[in-house]
Amino acid sequence: MKGQRKHLKEQRGRGEIRAERAFLVGIDYRHRNRPAGDSSKNKKADVAGKSDPGHSSLGKVPPSARLARNIAALRKEELEEHAIPFDAEESLSELRELTESAGAEIVGQVLQNRDRPDPATLIGKGKLEEISGAAKMSEADVVIFDHDLSPSQLRNLEREIDCRVLDRTQLILDIFARHARTREGQLQVELAQLEYMLPRLAGRGVEMSQLGGGIGTRGPGETQLETDRRKIYRRIRHVKEQLDDVRRIRAQQRQRRESAPVATIALVGYTNAGKSTLFNALTKAGVLESSRMFATLDPTLRAVQLPSKRQVLLSDTVGFIRNLPHTLVTAFRATLEEVQKASLLLHVTDATSPVAYEQMAQVEAVLRELEVGQKNRIHVMNKIDLLPKEKRESLIDDEDTVHVSAVKGLGLNELLKAIDRAVQDDPVQHVLLRIPISDGKALSIVDSKGRVQSREYQDEHVDIDVHAPASVVRRVEKYVTWRG
Prior knowledge:
The chain is an alpha/beta fold. It contains 19 helices and 14 strands. The strands form 3 sheets. The chain has a 6-stranded mixed β-sheet, sandwiched between helices. A 4-stranded parallel β-sheet has the order 2-1-3-4, with helices on both faces.
């Protein structure tokens, strides 16, 4: 098996194995709930501020700033109610990005309008024949549906199309399998794949035993798991035990961190919103930055110094997406515990996205599922360097919203100040200190960890007016002569 896998990698490296050819299928159900006489485009214009009578005082504030202000003004649990669902074209466009992230070449797509899904094939007999013909004409290797398919629908479609068929969840699981680098990430992906595959075993014995060389076949397929349900359950139990060990180790690490007064701040947001780029800009960590979806799976922690000279830990986390498969949310709980334990969330959004509102609502929905919907957060509107200059200059920050460009370094100082205001751990204290000149260690601590306002040298001591974190003040407590 290892020899075969190595041979496959060598073939790909020499370009002997071409990218898989994917044909995409989207479906627009005409019964979607939309207000009478109002299209999603009109409603999006309202969200963007083009028709915003309640915010007329904002004047020429551009759509992204109005978007941020509107969201900041909403209660978090109401955000989803104000967001407009992705329409079929936007959803199909997102499927294209996902497919490209999986390394496939898109050779065609079709968008079908239906009143309701067909229980047997989702798309109906006539459209099925059309897609089957188009897939053959384009020499597609795989047909990908922008919907979840039931086991029976999956089997019926594969039998009629005579080609591998994937649904949206399988595609996302495959991308996770491609990008998982650490043992923890690989275990989490395998668990999600196994739990998704379990009810879909019937009639799929060949795929389960083949070498994983294409979209939807990575992960468990490479371990040659048999289709016997008892063996699948046994493997699931084993993976869960390993993940429990990972969770215990992570809890011990977190307990050691929590013994020191250092706040943890988690970056959350829709996939490809620029979280890793922002993480690198703030920490100089050098983690992978990619325009591909779900480029970051494994959490990374780095220290950041705030303007008050307090130290905080910043955590980069996996991106969210609409209809994030529940198996993934469950499998990645060990990773997402960093979000649950964080003192503050930075909700990063692509300010230039036409569906930014909907993306934010999807993120909030996942946060509620993780039971952190009420946690304090700052909305970070990223990628403002892509906005026209006059719009960028008219952006207005507030306590809950900061506009930045992680790539260009715009707004990062304002973001650090906003974080400083929001973090309650190890609060800054204003004190006057009288430190003997002979105590060089205490003087060094105050200089390096506090913001000195003034100092006055006397014969044998130094009077220092300083703003410093409470943990620093405790270390020089015996020298405090006044406390603000």
